Fold each of these.
Amino acid sequence: MAYSSKKLARFSLYLAIALSLWVLEEFIPRPMPWLKPGFSYIAILLAMLDFDIKNGFAIGILRVFLGSLILGRLFSPSFILSLSGTIAALCVMSAFMISRGKFISLIGISIAGAFTHIAVQILVAGAIFYRIDAVIWLLPISTIWAIIAGAIVGIITEQVAAIQSTMKNAKI
Amino acid sequence: MLKKLKIGDFIIAISVLFLGFLPLIARHSSTAESFSIYLDGKKISRLSAGKDTTFSLDARLGKVIIEINDGRARVIESSCPEKICVRTGFIGKVGQSVACVPNKLLIVAEGKEKREKFDGILE
Amino acid sequence: MKSKRLHIYIFLQIVFAIFIGCSENESVHSRRWIYFDTVVGLKIYGSPADNQSNKIFAIAKDEFAYWDSLLDVYSDKSGLFDLNSSPAGTVKISSDLAEILRQSLEWRALTDSALEPKIGHIVELWGIGKGKKYIPLQSSIDSALNLIEKSNLIFVDDTTAIISGDIRIDLGAFAKGFVVDRVYEKILPMCNNNPLIDGFLIDAGRNIRGWNRNRNFTIGIANPRGDGIVGEFELPQSFGCASAGDYERYFILDGIRYHHIFDSKNGYPARGANSCTVVAYDALTADALSTAGIILGENIEKIIDKSKISVILFFERNGKLENQSFGKVKFLK
């Protein structure tokens, strides 16, 4: 991937936003540790729109590696959970991203991603660290959280994307 | 803002909701292998769901008639005043139960006892 | 461009699949053999290489085979058979056989002769489990008890003992627990030193002992009257457990059950309890005490240290199964 300096600057900006939101979220008080708002997906979705899906993947995965490095938990259990949730969510979101437009907006894509992220985390946690039947009951409450948080992230992304496109058009 | 919402978003939200609550739905869907009958909090009998039978037992207020038919169980007749247990009808899924509070009678549908969950068994 | 994108998808799908695939439940390797007239088995938890687990299985099998051939009362090639057929006087005993004999004599003292290793005459007379279904004449029982009374085995040093009278040693209450401990001690260092092995469980017909670095084992107690499981408990780390009861080998005559665990006081099948499960710090203790529980019933409480040993007794009363338990382990959930 050869980046022009302009492109590289934008990529770095998205990565910085995703990374800082991901790390800062860690310090927001919440009822259960895995119920995070997932604001870093705003930057990932915007990167997918601005560049392509490949760059969105890069930012999503890099933020887990760099963020875990900052928080001092690289390759720890919570890192494995974050990474597996992120990869699964990125796969699902990018599949929907292709059919975005007439029938699906960023809000639906974001909800699907949020649910995939949290569901895969629960399944992986159950499979690796506990037993599936011991953690599966967490899924219903987590689903409700995923729909709310996913919708908020989707709405914000949709707004920012709209502003971005008007700015782009204005430049021309 | 809401005009940005598309039909696909609703479909996604609804299917996510369905998937997320699937474990709750699936949990109660396995058919009962047996019915345990408790009287005054003590287990008095465990009956196979595979064998059709009708029998009566003496509970606190008098006679209760229980039927097992086609893998399901119900109370046909009870000596209790309100007959809630009779109106409950058939139970047949694991975890379901019929209770007759005045008679202190409880019927619980149970699955197969799982031997696999043990590391070892003292036979 | 498009095909490149597709490649990335496929790659990530595979990565994702590996993530899920790696996270299977713990894996178990298991072997079973027939020794001591029962099925004995070893389970190894974790993911050792095949040659590593096969080596451990081979060692365990050899150990079972060795002790089976040494302690089989009915084989004229066994060390125990030789001892039972030797005339009164001084005998040389192999150090392995001497070890289990000394332990069984200690248990005899500890239980005030409730556990009697010299019970062989009574066991032979009744022949339960060997096809006999009759109640011996009282005179035959009395003469068997008399032979037990008059016979004796006294160690003078590690491998020399003096036999008096016509001795018939029966190690039914000790042998399996003792051998489970021997196998346990043999394979524990090998498993502990192999980080790929998470644990193991030895199961020799109602005698279980195990070790696991991550968790305690869950053991079920089978219903002594019919199907199903009547109790379950967590086996503490490195502990052994055993069950004994009147349901293993028995016959029923005129509605009375005659079984293979005898009360050495009267020469009849013991009536203390119908089934007994013991959890103790080793398998021999659990095996011996579970048999003692059938003989002593509730009185077993007096001879156990309840901080280290747990016991549950089952009684069949009016067609219902009742239980009573002592000690720290919770047997029912």
Note: The mean pLDDT of chain A is 87.
Amino acid sequence: MELWIHLPLYLAFMAGKKVMRRMFIGQLAGMLLACGICAVAIFPATPPAAASASGAPPAKAAPALDPGEKIFEQNCARCHVPPMSFSPRVTGTIIAHMRMRARLTRKEELQLLKYLAP
Amino acid sequence: MTRYSQSIAKNIESAWFAIGALPRPVFACLVAVLWSLLPFAACAQSDQNVPEHSSAGYTPVLSGAFAYIQNTNGGVQSLVPQINPLLLVPMGHSVLLESRVEFTGFFQREDQTGPYAGKVLKTVDYAQLDWLADSHVMAAAGYYIIPFGLFSERESPVWIRNLQNDPITYAIATHPDGAADGFQLRGAAATLPFASIQYTAYVSAHSNVNELQSARSSGGDVSIYFPSPRFETGFSYRRTLEGNQINNEAAYLSWQPNSVSLDLKAEYDNNHYGQGYWIEAAHVPQHFFIAPDFFHHFQGVARMEQLVVRNGGGNGLATVNEERPVFGLNYLIRDDWRFVANYGRLLTKNGNSNQWNFGFTYRFIWPLWPGKKS
């Protein structure tokens, strides 16, 4: 018995290569669309608050965030658990490195530096 | 002149010829992007100062990770200790030298029952010089990680990845080297109040130099990031311009909703040898109904992956269709230390197998120079 049996894709495999490919792409597009719709749905609803997605807790609703803090909260958990702290003497180096990775602007870099190493 | 720089010089010429071999619309777009960015680079020096009231220091840093992973793949056990040091040397505020090396031990029992034996592999992941020229343009030259999709450049370090195995589609566009010798431009093309449009464009030359092997290629990545809902979606393209000249494409999305501690990532990859996707969700229970202080250190992860081979597959991909559900439970002692445990079941028509990983990862950041302290 084929192993694909437990996936809906099994049907596509049975039905032939072309159909399978179409279904595969269809499933993917569906998934991406679903995530897109969810994202759009929360646009107006949620204030920018959380500090981290995968590790650190979502931040408590802050009344008015410092621009640097806002950039930190919106960017630093995109790829990894953001560090709790690092020494001010390496802050410039690390933020330059992360600016390159996260493709941040100069303005965002300066605001981050001001926030992380006042 | 070193062997490396000789080889690069020789290949720059061929890289330019290679660019000429690009499909005309792609070539036109690449040229347009590169040229439209030059004026920004020209005024690069104008706004490069550290903010007046910041004590941020630019000390060289040794960062990276230690990890020890015990891996069981289809009943065969391997011990995989790793050290991945990353050197960051800033030169002023706008130039940064970054390089990461990987020392990975790979030990298995001889004849399944004997003592462990194996070897330590050394690889240069990347070695590049960055110029943070302007608000919208940054340039990098050297040996850089191929910016393709979500995984290669962002998620691959051992302390970042939520699950220890690479996705089964990982070889698409990154096989065989994972990195390339050449240069790239990247940055935020436009920052709107609600979104930022980010780009990367690169060309690379052929190199056979040990540890710095590279294929002639060109490509790019464009993504749009909505900071408020923390949602990003993007598209990557790479064309290899030697051997079987093939196109590689990826579409991805990443979302960290504000209201729940969830990290959702998904990527679809496609090339001549196969297509597939992975979709991953990671959750940290912040307000667990019992012992929340204990449980908020746990991270539950689930990933579904699928690969459909084409033209016989291979080239880093499997040669038969594969799918793999993977589950993980990580314990984050602090932001830098964590225990990892994951289980995946690889399903193929040739048979199924279990894959286990247990171990820990530790991320370090060490200043290399006594600098400003506050």
Note: Chain B touches chain A through 95 residues (CB under 8 Å).
